[in-house]
Amino acid sequence: MDACGLIVEYNPFHNGHLHHLLEAKRESNASCMIAVMSGNFLQRGEPAIIDKFHRTRAALASGIDIVVELPFVYAVQSSDLFAKGSVQTLNEIGVSSICFGSESGTTSNFITSYEIFKEKESIFQEELRKNLHKGLSFPDASKFAYEQIGLATEEMDLSQPNNILGFSYIREILDHQLAINAFTVKRTKSGYHDQTISSSIASATSIRKQLFHEGNVTEQIASTLPANTEQQLNEYYHKTSVWHNWEQYFPLLHYRVMTMDHSELAGIHGVDEGLEYRIKKTAKHTQSIYEWIDAIKTKRYTWTRIQRIFVHLLTNTKKEHIQPLKTSESVPYVRLLGMTKQGQAYLNQQKKVMNVPLVTRLPQHSSFLLECEEKASNAYYSILKPSIKRQFSKQEIGPPIIIG
Amino acid sequence: MDACGLIVEYNPFHNGHLHHLLEAKRESNASCMIAVMSGNFLQRGEPAIIDKFHRTRAALASGIDIVVELPFVYAVQSSDLFAKGSVQTLNEIGVSSICFGSESGTTSNFITSYEIFKEKESIFQEELRKNLHKGLSFPDASKFAYEQIGLATEEMDLSQPNNILGFSYIREILDHQLAINAFTVKRTKSGYHDQTISSSIASATSIRKQLFHEGNVTEQIASTLPANTEQQLNEYYHKTSVWHNWEQYFPLLHYRVMTMDHSELAGIHGVDEGLEYRIKKTAKHTQSIYEWIDAIKTKRYTWTRIQRIFVHLLTNTKKEHIQPLKTSESVPYVRLLGMTKQGQAYLNQQKKVMNVPLVTRLPQHSSFLLECEEKASNAYYSILKPSIKRQFSKQEIGPPIIIG
Description:
The first copy, chain A, has helices at 15-28, 52-61, 72-75, 79-92, 107-133, 138-148, 161-175, 204-214, 219-222, 227-240, 250-258, 262-266, 275-283, 289-296, 303-315, 319-327, 341-350, 368-381, 386-393, and strands at residues 3-8, 32-38, 66-70, 97-102, 181-186, 334-340, 358-359, 401-403. Chain A is α/β, with parallel strands linked by helices.
């Protein structure tokens, strides 16, 4: 049985993802669709609106056969680590192809870009270093470095967010010579950062913004979502009275920072170059997450970067937790969140030949990464009422979700 | 000008304290009454109902001339460290006498007991060690050890809480040969732990219990409080809508523990002998502070001891913060919280001859202990609304309170 992998965040699972899934099915001709999905915190440093278990249900009901978790330590990271975790997880579970969305939409452009990049990598690294040294943000610094080596053209613009991610997947595959065929489909209409819902394929950002603004799934929002996503959004809210957003975590994060000293702060992943002083100083005068990030941000420290740091602070993720990942070749386990009957049939075969454990319940396997997973999950649920918090945390130790 | 020192917690400042103050004034014949007062967290490991600034106002309005702070690192501790911090602070500010309340009420009994104790100290320590080894709690272990050396008689019962504290003050004075004259007044009627208000001199515990039960200062409660205390209780509530109690801190403390690993927990002051596993394990199933302490407590780990540990967890107070205090001879500074005109006149003279800095605003003097003070204060105010939290935290950097 052939499997095709998708790399998704699902916040929430919208029509764009559905479109992508159908394209991937058609192009790959695979009989099993596997999604590696971010857990409760997303790449841009935000809590997911609803938890990973409810998003897993939406994904399975929409045509995905297997949902595996992108470990937390890889999820809230810049594109290199995010790509390493995603691609290596899909590789361990044995996909023969990976399909990713991009602004470019032309697979051959990515392959050509990779070849150019390898040829000029030393120039790129030198430019990048110089740009960072000037005080530019990482996105800007790498954008100008790509320009220098001719990778910011109309055909292949590596300053666009989905192209950057896609290029990172390609690099991970080709650098490690993985037996995976990668192809891309064009991200249509709404971009990654678009804030208004302008079509039936809206960006996750715009849907998210509208959801929090309206406080319920309006008809306009519903028109951009698969029915299964709408159902899970409503179900989660019905059970918890919460759709997660950063502001709800302000009291916890503020308390945490106000009881840390500078050296502890500097031990948190992402707190570099004396940022601990800026975080502490601004904390004294702030009354919301928004106000706080706004007070910290600089040309170099972008909004997204600070949001990621806030996730690491909230979840107590230290430099010592992340450092070893940068040099490790693969992932230490694959965690199964859910599957259909079709997915189960695939896994029954696949698990016999896997090189790393397939984890189906949290305490089953002991690993440093799973401890980080547990802390992240605890932090995510910490804003719920005690009785619901307890009940929802138990999902982590339950069996995977099986539907269909 | 002669000064007499009192060691108080003021939670709240009740008629018993007023009685004690009048007795102390009469007995010492001092012209200046100085109180060393616990800050926002009290010896038994509880947040004070209202903050130290409002309690300072009540104390000054009730006849105290100077209020200085018992540094946080000494305040939430067993009697030895508590006594060291209190007595040394009063010594640095130059009191010629100290008056403490006790169940015994006879000063000579304490002096005699000290002499017996010094003579038989090695037997006491050996008994104590053996009893602790058997798994007894510290209070029980020391009670039986005192019995062994004849210090649990009717005249001098060192199993009673105020006698224990008083004996610790005497030891601190005589061990260091401080030029301080100590005397005791009898604690009348209601004991330390009494839970009902039975007379106009009620215990702090009973007043506290009643206050939280009723949610306002009833006539019965008011009859046990000086008018100034009642006023400050009401004023604090009016400004913040809060009287502090442990349950309000449950979401923060639970979040904190759920995102710590075992080794971090074991670094917190008081978390010894594998207690980190018990704290983490019970956290998963608990929905309140009460339920949580009840699940952790054992014969050896008493309710009070766990409450103290919870304060250290909440305030992020580590073993490395407290360890050096045990061997230090004195306190590194004296922090002034408030004074009357009379107190000011005393301090104008006294500060010229003091051996340690007199700190009147928090950032004035840099010290490890003051950093702990700031973290404790931040933790205490963390349950207030953001705008009020910000305003109240600023009290720490303001000038001392001056009245009269």
